[in-house]
């Protein structure tokens, strides 16, 4: 075989390889499509199952809610959608990827705050648990009422003496504090700081005496 023939034979092989790759990709796409169809059919089957269960609780006056087993997010979304269409309330509880589940309630039987709190904490809700939460709320209410009765002690944020130490010095601040301490007779000003310490009666008597003295010295000032 000559050189040119060898080259041509080599060039014919790539199309065969490309054809194999196309066949492989075609099979893969077919498998993916089959998986999608199976998932779609599975979701449709689960939706019919959810519709049947929710329809039964809607017609049963003795039941307040229905609880589904732990489900993946996509299945929980189906339950929420079916419940909304049926006019019911759906709520999810539990840890994602571990035990998260859905409960569908009749709207007239919506869960209390205590039940929601308990289920979110991973607790099972029953009559005993309801009594326990009611007792907790009562104890908290009594504690809050008792606390409200006690007067709040007001504590100053800072000491006024320390506030001005950097301006007038430690000794001056202490001295000023002493002078402004409460005094039983004169309020906040010490009696020794007052210029006139006479009583009111004594002051009035002194004024009258000054007037008499002035009249005696200048008897004609009040004439004309």
TrEMBL record:
* Segment forming the signal sequence: none
| Gene Ontology MF terms in the entry | nucleic acid binding
Q: What Gene3D superfamilies does this protein's entry cite?
A: R3H-like domain
Q: Which InterPro entries match?
A: R3H_dom, R3H_dom_sf, SPAG7
Where are the annotated coiled coils located? 18-60
Q: Which domain of life is it from?
A: Eukaryota
* Keyword hit for Coiled coil: yes
What keywords were assigned to this record? Coiled coil
Domain R3H residue range list = 44-108
What is the name of the protein in this document?
Sperm-associated antigen 7
Look up and give the organism this protein is from.
Answer: Pseudolycoriella hygida
